DNA sequence: GGCCATTAAATCGCGCACTATATAAGTTAC
DNA sequence: GTAACTTATATAGTGCGCGATTTAATGGCC
């Protein structure tokens, strides 16, 4: 609480920051990350690691770049992350025989099994977000549309 | 481009990731960051640094924690960031006389002047986002509502 | 005064996210 | 077949963002 002497300015300029979509996006994403950090603690995963696991649960045996396309992340981010997942024995990484440049990432048994522990997560997040399912869908679609606009530049 | 052999799976599971609001939020925020990185390059600022500058342009002479409240960031993030702004000679940092625990952050002339260079930025972002102003406002309000829900836990 | 709890910043360590660059495997052109 | 180009991953360095701890100043409370 900043107690005094900055209330009379809140109508003019202070709102300038709060009026910005970009800041709302930034700050909301941080709040969402914090929620996930709490929920993912028991799985010993970070949110980006959880995203990679979700990708692999949907389709196993993907190359690094294929995971990268799905998440809009590149090898500089993914390689160390995947190494951490590997040392947690959730995935394996091996060069493909057909093309030795590529690295195929596959789930271990532990990695596959973790999916069951993660099943309750979406419901918990939805509860915490406090929006109706339709509101969440609408928001999601608007965000995806915005992202598409931002990416076409 | 992943060319073949994973198109027939896109209806079932692949959409699970894309169906999630959280991922949309995450990915859109990354895209927005990329846009800002490009636009802020000429100002030699990162997006979080730009946020701090906006806060100070709105109200100068704030303590670290007061900036932190406005941006939902703590001293572990802000102290090094502010030191970078200081060494770029955009802000000054000095302990307040009344309470030596506090550090007051103030704009230098250079820091104030930078505001003029930043004036064109919001319009450029708005153009890139490709949404109407009313759409952006609606989206912003929904995000703020979501953030508020996420924070009350 | 002296002790204790509280508060404000700073520090440490880790994990992204990204730019730029490197390495190495594959492909093309000649 | 080899030089030139392209592609897939990895590495190096920077800057957040945060949990956990530390340091130092302040405010009671006796």
From TrEMBL, chains A, B:
GO terms for biological process: response to stress. GO terms for cellular component: cytoplasm. Gene3D superfamilies: Winged helix-like DNA-binding domain superfamily/Winged helix DNA-binding domain. The keyword tRNA-binding does not apply. Pfam families: Staph_reg_Sar_Rot. Its main location: cytoplasm. GO terms for molecular function: DNA binding; DNA-binding transcription factor activity. Keywords: Cytoplasm, DNA-binding, Transcription, Transcription regulation. InterPro entries: HTH_MarR-typ (IPR000835), MarR/SlyA-like (IPR039422), Transc_reg_Sar_Rot_HTH (IPR055166), WH-like_DNA-bd_sf (IPR036388), WH_DNA-bd_sf (IPR036390). It is found in: Cytoplasm. This is MarR family transcriptional regulator.
